[in-house]
Structure formats: structure tokens, C-alpha cells
Amino acid sequence: MSLRQFIATRALLKTLSAIKNSILYSWEEAARILGLDEDLYTHPLHRELDRPVRVILIGAGNRGGIYADYATKSPREMRVVGVAEPNGARRRRIAAAHGIPPERCFTDWKQVFEGGPPWADAVIIATPDRLHTAPCLRALELGYDVLLEKPAAPTEAECRQILAAAQASGRIVGVCHVLRYTPYFRELKALIDGGMIGQVISVQHMEPIEHVHMSHSYVRGHWRKSEDTTPIILAKSCHDTDILRWLVGAPAAEVHCYGNLKWFKQANAPEGSTPRCTDGCKVEPECPYSALQIYYRDRKRLYVFDLPADASKWGPLILQGLQTTDYGRCVYRMDNDQPDHLTANILFSNGVTAGFSMEAFVSYEGRRTRIMGSMGDIVGDMESFTLTSFKDGKRRSWSMKTDAHGGGDHRMVKDWVQAVGQRNPALLSSPIEVSVESHLIAYAAEKSRVNRTIETVQM
Ligand SMILES: NC(=O)c1ccc[n+]([C@@H]2O[C@H](COP(=O)([O-])OP(=O)(O)OC[C@H]3O[C@@H](n4cnc5c(N)ncnc54)[C@H](O)[C@@H]3O)[C@@H](O)[C@H]2O)c1
After folding, report:
1. Rounded mean pLDDT, 97-108
2. Where are the domains of the chain?
3. For all residues of the chain together, what is the average pLDDT?
4. What average pLDDT score do residues 413-431 get?
């Protein structure tokens, strides 16, 4: 869709919404009624590429798999031509899905770069948090463009090092701040920038992790110890410091943060509980974090077990996983240290203040955001929002149902592929140059939390 068609379509949909006596269609519904492409959020600079961008996937876990899927969906834009992944099942799955020859399949990221000059256009780095900096620096040195998972790096020094290397090499480094690419946040940003609520005065933003998700990733899972990964404000919430910086439209000046681990610890282990849920735990039937319930009976979050395609074989394999991996351990008897609740206050250089809460103990997911402006306010939950104007008291609503990441994952990959294919970084909303700032807010917040200080943020 061209920019002109895009603007005309939106105007038409808005009229349609208004006519309906303020019973508003979602964009998605309206697009369906009008028989239009549902994806109204395509970047106006997108164009057909001369050839697909050739990428090497480094880290073929959960995120890497999602990004690689884009090549299956859009083979004219992206091809996965190599993979580096120590886990054999994951490596073979990607190789089979993308027809990668054995000589382009590796067990470690370093092997990708041993052959000397680049044999692809770009690399996607979706390795664990502590394994981003080294492959990114090496890729830039050899002349690859990069799509880098967030957090870009565990420390401020490494983050600045990546920025310097990207600038020196002139290569494109996109950071996976997927929220920026969601229709929901794009619409919010457009309304704010269009002055629909006057000047932004303050923001309240909450990230509800959801209690089982918390237990899976930050109590039992890879991200449970900040030393081994990154502090949770980076691992989970650098998306939020990023979205706040983006919506407010000014750099952060100061940050203050409180937060601690209050519930998921030994002192709260119920009487009768056992080291593993499969050890005959007496409270297992009523425990909200029962691994038997989550993984075995409800069959949720099973990607961590690398199960075969044939679901009839899963039962015994899941039970074996619960007896041998961290995912079967009692949530009160882990070696976790990530805070399960945290609040940060941010003062931006334009005087806007933002309050951010990261909460584990909630039954829902989906960021909640309230934006207070001089001429109106916005209240939203990532599926819908309502804008109320102080001028005429009118309320305007927007809604769209999408996947867990608000539909941002593949929209982000598309923008990055287009940026690489067209050699135009302007197509990317989250290049490293911008992303460093959001990371600096998170590093400062963690410093404040640990040292009980108010931290200055300096670019
Ligand atoms: N953008 C987002 O919204 C988002 C969401 C979740 C996670 N993440 C981030 O994405 C990254 C990956 O997370 P994930 O959930 O996919 O984790 P994961 O554990 O599923 O995947 C990481 C993969 O890297 C592989 N790996 C480890 N060492 C390697 C090496 N030396 N060479 C090559 N591969 C190696 C692992 O075997 C694993 O398969 C993390 O940094 C995480 O914080 C981002």
C-alpha cells in the first residue's frame, strides 16, 4: 500500500467509525468490512527488494526461531543461509526448515566468522543475554549488518562499545525492541506526536509479567539470576524504558528505583513442599506454580523441552524434563535473585515524569499505560485504548487483537530486512543509536535500586 493509499484508507476508516454513533470499529474489523489488507501499519518506505536478504541465525532458541520464521513467510525478502546453535535438535530444525547445507550449520557462533569475509548480508543474534556483545562486535568487524536481541549488552560499557563499533563500521544494527513495531504503540505515538492530547505532562506505565510467566522465566528459567543473565530491569523491562523514552520524545535526565524479591524464596516454601513438584509435594494440587499443572497437565510453555513433532510422545518426555531440569523445581527453593516487583520514577529532560511498575503478581499480561496530556488523556492496555479530549469531552477508542508481543515481532523483522535490503537505516525505529538511550535508563535504574540513589542519565 502506498503512503497516499495508507492515509486515504485511514481517513475512510475514521469516518466510518465516526458515523457509527461512536460505536467504533477496530481497524482490523473495518479493514475486513472494506476488504482491505489487515496490515495497515506497513512502513510507507517498504518496497520490493531486488533479492532476498541472506541472514545467518546465531542462537536458534525461542526468539531465533520466531525471527527465522519470517523467511518462511516472506521468502522474497529474507533467506536463512546459515545457523549457529549448540542444541542439536534446534539446529537441525532450522536447517531442515530453511534448506541449510551441513557446511553452513555450526555449534558455536565463533565458527560462523572463521571463514573470513562475509558469506551473507547480515546476522541475527538471538543468543542468551551475556552472549550478545562478542558476536555483535565480530560481525561488525567483518562487515555484516546485525539484528541484535535486547538487552543489547549486560553492561553500559559494552553497550557503548557496540554503538561505537556500529558507527565506525557504518553497518546497520537493529535492536529487537519489538513494542515499537506494534500497531498499538505506533498508533499511540502518532496521536501524541499529532498533538491530540496537547503536551505530554506525565505517564504511568505498568508491565504486568503475570505470575506463571514470572515463575517460568525469572524464578525457574534462564533469567533467574541477574549475574548469569542481566538484571530484570534490563532482561524484561528495557522494552518499557524504551517505549517510555519513545513516547515522551526526550532523553531521560534522572532515575530512581525501588524493588526486591519478596515472595519466591525459601522462607515462603509451604509446609509439605518438596524440592521438585514430582517428589510427592503435599501442596502441589493447590499450588499456582505446580510444574505438573503448568507443563504436564496444561501443556503450556513447552518450547523449553525441545519436544518432537509427534504430540503423542510428549507425556513421558515432559515428566522426564520435570525430573531433570530446573522447570520441575519448587519455585520457593531456587537460586533466583531477580526482584518480583519493582517501581521506577523517571524525570525526562523536558520536565515530563514517568512512573513505571514491573509486577509479577498479576493474573494478566499486556502493558497498561496512562498518558496525561495538557489537552487530554489516554488509557490503554495494549489491545485497546481510549483517548479523551478535554476540549470537547469526546472519547475515541481504538482496538486490535494481536499475538502476545502485540504483533510486533514480524513487523520489526520486516523493517530491519527492508533497512538492510535498501541500505536505509531510516526504516528502523530501533537502531542501536536510539536503543542505547533506553538501555542507559535501565542501567541507571538498576544502579539506583541496588545503591538506593538517584541516578543521572547521561548519553
Ligand atoms: N525481544 C523480545 O521481546 C525478547 C523476548 C524474550 C527474550 N528475548 C531475548 O532474546 C535472547 C534469546 O532468548 P530466547 O528466549 O530465545 O532464549 P533461548 O534459550 O530459547 O535461545 C537462546 C539460544 O542460544 C543458543 N546458544 C547458546 N550459546 C550459543 C553459542 N555459543 N552460539 C550460538 N548459539 C548459542 C542456546 O542454545 C539457545 O538455543 C535473550 O537475550 C533474551 O533476553 C527478547
Report:
1. 98
2. 3-33, 183-265+336-402+433-456, 266-328
3. 92
4. 96
Alpha-carbon torsion 242, 246, 247, 253, what sign?
Answer: positive
Does the pLDDT value for residue 33 go beyond 90? no
Ligand 1 site, CB within 6 A: 58-64, 84-87, 90, 108-109, 126-129, 131, 149-150, 176, 178, 222, 235, 405
Confidence (pTM): 0.91
Element housing 259 (H / E)? strand 252-260
What's the 107 CA to ligand 1 centre distance in angstroms?
A: 14
Strand order through the sheet with 78-84: 105-106, 78-84, 53-58, 122-125, 145-148, 173-175
Work out the average pLDDT over 301-310: 94
Sign of the torsion angle spanned by Cα atoms 301, 180, 363, 338: positive
Judged by DSSP in three states, 396 sits in strand
CATH number of the domain located at residue range(s) 183-265+336-402+433-456 in this protein = 3.30.360.10
How far apart are alpha carbons 323 and 333 in whole angstroms? 15
pLDDT at 158: 98
